[in-house]
Amino acid sequence: MNNFQFRNPTNIIFGKGQISKIADEIPKDAKVLMLYGGGSIKKNGIYEQVTAALKGISFEEFGGIPANPEYEVLLEALAVIKEKNIDFLLAVGGGSVIDGVKFLSSAALYEGDEPWDILSKGIRTEKGMPFGTVLTLPATGSEMNSGAVVTRAETKEKLVMGGPGLFPVFSILDPSVVASVPQRQIANGLADSFTHVLEQYMTYPAGGLLQDRFSEGILQTLIEVAPAVMKDPADYEAAASFMWSCTLALNGLIQKGVPTDWAIHMMGHELTALYGIDHARTLAILTDSHYTYNLETKKEKLAQYAERVWGVTEGTTEEKAKAGIQKTKEFFESLGIKTNLSDYTDESEGTAQKVANRLKERGMTKLGEHGTITPTDVEKIVAMAY
Amino acid sequence: MNNFQFRNPTNIIFGKGQISKIADEIPKDAKVLMLYGGGSIKKNGIYEQVTAALKGISFEEFGGIPANPEYEVLLEALAVIKEKNIDFLLAVGGGSVIDGVKFLSSAALYEGDEPWDILSKGIRTEKGMPFGTVLTLPATGSEMNSGAVVTRAETKEKLVMGGPGLFPVFSILDPSVVASVPQRQIANGLADSFTHVLEQYMTYPAGGLLQDRFSEGILQTLIEVAPAVMKDPADYEAAASFMWSCTLALNGLIQKGVPTDWAIHMMGHELTALYGIDHARTLAILTDSHYTYNLETKKEKLAQYAERVWGVTEGTTEEKAKAGIQKTKEFFESLGIKTNLSDYTDESEGTAQKVANRLKERGMTKLGEHGTITPTDVEKIVAMAY
Fold first, then answer.
1. What span, in angstroms and rounded, lies between the C-alpha atoms of B384 and A10?
2. What is the mean pLDDT of the segment spanning A283-292?
């Protein structure tokens, strides 16, 4: 097991009717900016619940943060924060809104001239403006971690940021909200959280016995609840296990002390930036080809996964590993997610090279848990995904 | 799944050579009291590592905190804290030292006249004196939770305390320290952490799908590493998984959203207070009879445990449940722990009644996840343990 440090101070408030507790978690004299996305919260009752819960607290609103939060829109919100002397942020939404608010938390206290530097120069945020979240869509785990991904439309860039200053002070997780999530987004949430676990688990045996068990436990739970939550998002018990699994999939715990991959995400971000493919679907597209291409270095863990998660008992290590890849592809397809790149874009020529070149331009030439996946490998992996 | 709140802000610093990082975690101007137990840290090199790491920081020492930290000894340490204007505590030890320091953290800021009230009146600690820990013995999980157990020798009382003010600021977990732990204490650590998980898991199905998987994962890991760590405590990889499993067994995570039992602990504490039996051994003694006595209400989870953790595939639910109990008893015995009360005390007459009466006197008349275990039941369960 590798040495590690783990600290996650976010206060999770989980369950039915918990949105009403927001005001207990925000300082009474705070000047709050409530941020949300395209307005679905005004249709499903969450907007009313949140604003009712904020009674007695001074707050402004900023709606319209798009999926893959765009830098240009976030700059408008940043101007509101400065103009209105905001000192506490409240994200009401899924991963995109929460990630956008994390950028704002950092940018609001950033002393440089150009907030984009936080992303392009990889500046770690030690201290951000305090913020809480009300999660409306289980998927990214952003509600209990200190990372974020922000997109810049004009340059088609999608970059990551983070730091210990970016943990939410609190996050309210009411599984009842899942009832109004469209099925497409539930499928995305299942695939996204599933891949988050895979990226932290599917490497090589490294003595992380408990980390492996926890990772396998999240995968098993997602597989177990997927049919129920896809069939009826108002099934509270299924939604609760789905939501808690998404959070634990990326709150830092399972990656501590073990190697991690994240190459699927790095390649997937480029597909989203280039073609606007849903984040989760880019992951589902690339999983099969990434694991097949890297079978030799990943086969022990792939076989362990096939055995423990899918109950595959027959075959050699390599055969089990391949069965694990196939089961994963079938799981994504069972969610209605197409897993071939050709299902998403006609641009069959040049895409693989484009992705490779874009990563190369940013110096991301050594991906994967061994740091051995070069732009040449990326090109082959993406090409295999057609 | 039940509603829950989860926040655990302790900074875990895990791995080889991490004790040297202590000074980074303590305010430079702090006046520190370093507390430890019977002096084993002076023999195994940990004392030297800690004091070397504290270079440049002003600190005093208090040694001699006994197993099952005694109130009388802790009062002496409290006097030192007040006399020397201490404002930061450092526990170097196992669960007893850490629990003792938690009491001191609370008592140092307590405004009442009688610190024992914190225990006897169940006063919750909202704010304590900040403290860190250097763990020398994996077992109790106290290094990453906010609870403690303190004993008062004169009245033979062993009482629990806790509150959000009692999380360690940091805990240093270096698995290398396991190399010098006597085998008896390693066995105790395995049994203690194993039972911690059982108390939070062995109730009834309650929709905590992920919590069940995590609990089962900790149990599987403890079973997997037990032979290696018993055979050679210097096996770093085994010690690392053992240590991290003990911490995760009782850091709050697996109990969130699900019912918990804790009756074994409540009865076990009385056996320790009455006869001085090692805490972990009291748990091993009572597990079999508690689960057998409560088979009807626990059989679904017992059968699930037998299947998933021990691979029991044959039989009815009840047969699997009984197999699970038997496997547990055999696991404890495999650690060299005798699991019958008659192995520990000749006082075969009256013990069961004594335990029942003591719990009754403290108003603990409704134990277990259903609150249905009365002193009459306690008497029968303890009697069955002979």
1. 44
2. 98
